[in-house]
């Protein structure tokens, strides 16, 4: 048996390594050619001290000078003496560059593109090799004909060579203009990644997903992964947009609802003149039952105003979710892409 260990570096790069059931995390990292900080290898110096955000592990021998009892209780560990007993997420106090690893460069062929929505473009890239990433992460895609990149979350799950994305169609946006007017199936695009710490953690308690606009993308990736890796925890997605025309991938959500008995979703439209069943903001339709007294993992992806509004909503109700993970997306500039 082996476990997936996600190493989160200080510069936002995350690398996923495979660690055997009886293998030390430091050994697995070095086997993957990742030089995480390490010195004595005996649990005596503390150089390899990292923090385990989630997951379980067995901590071997160490002295208190290297790791205090208080640190151990808070989830700190010495990777030279630690063996995982489940999939883990570990924060490494160093940059990916210092650890001699980095996000990888890739290329993909534009396989499909849909411009059916007036506000969103959906496209997919076909790669020759599998790209290792965690559901919820993103890549930087180079805009053809320029030296600039734009960041987009995968809307497809890991483990396949076809990678899908949703992008907001921003007037005069560099990538928007290309995808809306010039992109042709068969063209090649380069991208780098994966990046980001906004990804699905172990599904061990109820989950609430809050999506704003194209912030839906990482949740599609997560949900498609859950479809193949089932959980017994309830999952609710609240998908908010400005107008009904902004709603996309509803057929995909319906299929996920049919396939995952624990999953449900509803949509909210800001435009109060709309005939949509639910109008206003996503927080207008959150109920106490959804939050489960704070014993819930909340994932939030949307524009900064939405993220701040949700944080205020929880604060005003004096509710602190067990986990609150969020990702803000903004325009590169006033005429850029999100």
TrEMBL record:
<dbReference type="GO" id="GO:0051213">
    <property type="term" value="F:dioxygenase activity"/>
</dbReference>
<feature type="domain" description="FAD-binding FR-type">
    <location>
        <begin position="103"/>
        <end position="201"/>
    </location>
</feature>
<feature type="domain" description="2Fe-2S ferredoxin-type">
    <location>
        <begin position="3"/>
        <end position="96"/>
    </location>
</feature>
<dbReference type="InterPro" id="IPR006058">
    <property type="entry name" value="2Fe2S_fd_BS"/>
</dbReference>
<dbReference type="InterPro" id="IPR001709">
    <property type="entry name" value="Flavoprot_Pyr_Nucl_cyt_Rdtase"/>
</dbReference>
<keyword id="KW-0223">Dioxygenase</keyword>
<dbReference type="InterPro" id="IPR012675">
    <property type="entry name" value="Beta-grasp_dom_sf"/>
</dbReference>
<dbReference type="InterPro" id="IPR050415">
    <property type="entry name" value="MRET"/>
</dbReference>
<dbReference type="InterPro" id="IPR036010">
    <property type="entry name" value="2Fe-2S_ferredoxin-like_sf"/>
</dbReference>
<dbReference type="GO" id="GO:0051537">
    <property type="term" value="F:2 iron, 2 sulfur cluster binding"/>
</dbReference>
<dbReference type="InterPro" id="IPR047683">
    <property type="entry name" value="BenC-like_FAD_NAD-bd"/>
</dbReference>
<dbReference type="InterPro" id="IPR039261">
    <property type="entry name" value="FNR_nucleotide-bd"/>
</dbReference>
<dbReference type="InterPro" id="IPR008333">
    <property type="entry name" value="Cbr1-like_FAD-bd_dom"/>
</dbReference>
<dbReference type="InterPro" id="IPR017927">
    <property type="entry name" value="FAD-bd_FR_type"/>
</dbReference>
<dbReference type="Pfam" id="PF00175">
    <property type="entry name" value="NAD_binding_1"/>
</dbReference>
<protein>
    <submittedName>
        <fullName>Ring-hydroxylating dioxygenase ferredoxin reductase family protein</fullName>
    </submittedName>
</protein>
<dbReference type="InterPro" id="IPR017938">
    <property type="entry name" value="Riboflavin_synthase-like_b-brl"/>
</dbReference>
<keyword id="KW-0560">Oxidoreductase</keyword>
<dbReference type="Pfam" id="PF00111">
    <property type="entry name" value="Fer2"/>
</dbReference>
<dbReference type="InterPro" id="IPR001433">
    <property type="entry name" value="OxRdtase_FAD/NAD-bd"/>
</dbReference>
<dbReference type="InterPro" id="IPR001041">
    <property type="entry name" value="2Fe-2S_ferredoxin-type"/>
</dbReference>
<dbReference type="Pfam" id="PF00970">
    <property type="entry name" value="FAD_binding_6"/>
</dbReference>
């Amino acid at each position: 048996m082996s476990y997936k260990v996600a190493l989160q570096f200080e510069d936002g790069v995350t690398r996923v390594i495979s660690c055997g059931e009886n293998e030390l995390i430091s050994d697995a990292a070095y086997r993957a050619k990742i030089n995480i900080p390490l010195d004595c290898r005996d649990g005596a110096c503390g150089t390899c001290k990292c923090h385990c955000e989630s997951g379980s592990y067995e901590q071997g021998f160490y002295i208190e000078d290297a790791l205090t009892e208080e640190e151990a209780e808070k989830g700190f560990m010495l990777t030279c003496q630690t063996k995982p007993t489940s999939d883990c997420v570990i924060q490494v106090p160093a940059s990916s560059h210092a650890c001699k690893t980095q996000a990888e460069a890739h290329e993909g062929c534009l396989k499909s593109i849909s411009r059916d929505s007036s506000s969103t473009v959906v496209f997919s890239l076909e790669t020759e090799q599998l790209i290792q990433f965690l559901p919820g992460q993103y890549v930087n895609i180079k805009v053809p004909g320029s030296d600039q990149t734009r960041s987009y979350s995968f809307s497809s799950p890991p483990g396949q060579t076809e990678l899908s994305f949703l992008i907001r169609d921003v007037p005069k946006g560099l990538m928007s203009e290309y995808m809306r007017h010039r992109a042709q199936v068969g063209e090649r695009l380069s991208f780098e990644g994966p990046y980001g710490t906004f990804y699905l953690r172990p599904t061990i308690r109820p989950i609430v997903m809050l999506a704003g606009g194209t912030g839906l993308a990482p949740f599609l990736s997560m949900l498609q992964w859950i479809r193949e890796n089932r959980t017994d925890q309830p999952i609710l997605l609240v998908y908010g947009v400005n107008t009904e025309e902004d709603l996309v991938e509803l057929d995909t959500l319906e299929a996920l609802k049919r396939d995952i008995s624990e999953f449900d979703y509803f949509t909210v439209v800001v435009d109060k003149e709309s005939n949509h069943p639910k109008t206003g903001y996503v927080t207008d339709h959150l109920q106490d039952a959804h939050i489960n007294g704070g014993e819930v993992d909340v994932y939030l992806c949307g524009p900064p105003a939405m993220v701040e509004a949700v944080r205020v909503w929880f604060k005003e109700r004096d509710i602190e979710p067990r986990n609150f993970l969020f990702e803000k997306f903004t325009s590169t500039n006033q005429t850029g892409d999100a």
